[in-house]
């Protein structure tokens, strides 16, 4: 496996090889974990990701520890591996905190609302379905959340589509395709941060490499919806005037706000370290909030005038804790809620608990044993990619949670990819192409249940039209089968 050092270079991480462990002993903790997670999701439903799944990961680690004790693996050895695992995610954890802070200042500065405002204006009845994909992609990139996109603009688009006489399944499929494209490609997304953390890669390297399969997939998706848009009959009109008016009445919307995301994109292109780029983006967002949205900033602190103290307090609140910008439109109120650093603590909690499970599995030699068996079965590079895709989808079905569909295969396959001299971006991209996006296609998965409930459209109705979601794992397998842009490890890194 590869870990991130503070200077950006990678060093090999030792994985314990316990020859006494049989494959069945190595699989006991995995089987126990999947069983406990499945029952936990059954009991808690969507709320399972709020904390109970994290504790189940600790219980899974305890089962692994028992297997280790029975095979004469010391407590110290297991704990040392846990410590090394958590240390390897230090960069990812700090990035997550800054992602939360950036999202907070970009909300109160009007940057995210501006993206939504201009995005909604590209609606056209003739290309409504394709527009749904684009709008949801823009909003999901801006917010880093497919759930938020679905629950706000997604609901509005479902209503507009119904008024136009378009199939609810088609509209829902278009909404989810765009929402998950944005969720995958946004550095604000927790899964986009989680995948490279599990694979041992860099966030922005992961996004850049992932675009190789994601861009063709979304282009095909949009083209299909354009064709569908010309084939089906539509009636009525797509009226977003009320939503646009409410956004305009709440925020000072103007083109200058886009200077901040442009600056951050420029820094990323210039290979500025992610922590520095995100910190600069956060601070620029804070400055623009004070310049363009002083009423929003003072409103957070219940102050009448913008002073140094009220400005300081408002900005720090947006950076650190959950904040809310009220509008006259109930559908927008949920969208205009910033999480700050506090909102990322759940994902950080998940990573730490996952590192405990993975660390104990490392310590007892279980991961080494499992990866050897996987490599034995996956004799080719394509076989390794296919095994990863299959594992992610299987975890989405059995564990019913997209985070675990990234965490467990990511931890198990990292060494296998490294042994094949494959860069960690190959694994992190495959985890997202098959773990993140397919979760919404499974009715009992937390994502499938959530989006189906929010949009009021059954999974069976939108499954076929969620083109981006089911095409993504196929695309990554095509790239693997034909050896297209398969990145090798760079010697000395």
From TrEMBL:
Record field: transmembrane: 23-43, 55-73, 93-120, 127-147, 153-176, 209-231, 251-269, 276-293, 348-368, 380-399, 462-482
Q: Where in the cell is it found?
A: Cell membrane
Report the principal subcellular site: membrane
Report the Pfam families cross-referenced here: Na_H_antiporter (PF03553)
Q: How does it sit in the membrane?
A: Multi-pass membrane protein
Per the record, the similarity remark reads: Belongs to the NhaC Na(+)/H(+) (TC 2.A.35) antiporter family.
Tell me what this protein is called.
Answer: Na+/H+ antiporter NhaC
Which organism encodes this protein? Maribacter polysiphoniae
